[in-house]
Amino acid sequence: MSIASILFVSFAVLLLLNVPIALSLGVSSLVAMLAAELPMDLFPMTIYANIGKFTLLAIPFFMLAGNTMEKAGISDKLINLANAYVGHKKGGLAIVGVITSCFFAAISGSGPATVASLGVIVIPAMINAGYTKGMSSALMATAGGIGIIIPPSIPFVIYGAIAGVSIGKIFMAGIVPGLLMGAALIIASLLMAKNMDIKPQPKASAKERWLAFKDAIWGLMMPVIILGGIYGGFFTPTEAAAVSAVYGILVGVLVYKKLSIKDLYKLMVDSAVGSAVVMFIVACAGLFAWFCTTTGISDMASQLLLSVSGSKTMFLLIVNIILLIAGCFLDAPSALYIFTPIMLPVATQLGYDPIALGVVMTMNLAIGMITPPVGVNLYVACGVSKITLGQISKAVVPYLVASLAVLFLITYVPDIIMFLPNMMGIK
What we know:
Blueprint: H1 3-16, H2 21-35, H3 42-51, H4 58-71, H5 74-86, H6 92-108, H7 111-129, H8 133-144, H9 154-163, H10 167-173, H11 175-193, H12 206-231, H13 237-255, H14 261-294, H15 297-309, H16 312-326, H17 332-349, H18 354-368, H19 376-385, H20 389-395, H21 397-412, H22 415-424
Helix pairs in contact: 1-2, 2-14, 3-14, 4-13, 4-14, 5-6, 5-12, 6-7, 6-8, 6-11, 7-8, 7-19, 8-11, 8-19, 8-20, 9-17, 9-18, 10-22, 11-21, 12-13, 14-17, 15-16, 15-17, 16-17, 16-18, 17-18, 18-21
């Protein structure tokens, strides 16, 4: 049996045995290394090399910032703000759910965190207003995917570390696709709401709107500080993550006054645990990718992909199909580590921008968050609304179609992705 066969067969067997994906990647890589008779001292060295990168320090800081602002009650304030401006319209609560997801995405950088934080408020409110339980849950599960497209995005940080591209540039490139996805979800929701008996929300007065805006301004300032600091040249993305974490703590303690010293300790622990999970995935997936690269498996896969695709159009179609299927089974960090070394060289050879490829790959994996069997956002939304996976899987279909339409658009019109970075001259 060839080394490649040993690697992939052992990985598949471990998955079938229900071993966690990260552990499956690490163990299958170790088995393949033993079969290839590689020196075992490469194992710890490679593990450390994958996680010992300055760029990846952004992950725990962004997690801490998102957790801090969540505990400070910013989700409530963002929902109140959106509700004050559009809640009274037909389908207004659905619009509120999407808008607040976009705002919260610019704070947390995590899809499941967006669903969990906003879903507990928006889903019951939508159900009480006359939306079906399935539609409400499916909308928030899908909108949570925006959390890894609009910056700051943890998958963007990981892709930047793998591909060696500017994280600041890919952050900027994710803004328009993320907003387009939000717009598509709003349109789908309004079309579905036409046939529902929805109770209208009371229209807010000008004073109520101003108070809602004033209450939410501190939360809204976080993405301004992060992106403004990066593109203003004041700090790197990693330093921006640290600044945002400090800002979140100061706002939670001094402004909103909802955080105590005890809360800060728990926040630190929760953020450390969450970061450890991501970094463990990065370490194991990185080992898997390193082995594929070292043994020439990635090069062979790239050449095969290039020979099968033949053109940029066909290559992009194959990329989307592969990643949409992979997203059903793999988390975003693992998928990025496995497929970036294969797809990036082909994209470069065909003249497709590496930044655009990163955004396309990430949007595919965001859609993977709402596709069973490993659609993590679906499980979070199910937990909030107490419905079955079968019920939410049916309800999510219209939103899946809307998301795929946006994916198709940005894939074949990469100028949409590159519009902001090129306009601002970001390198």
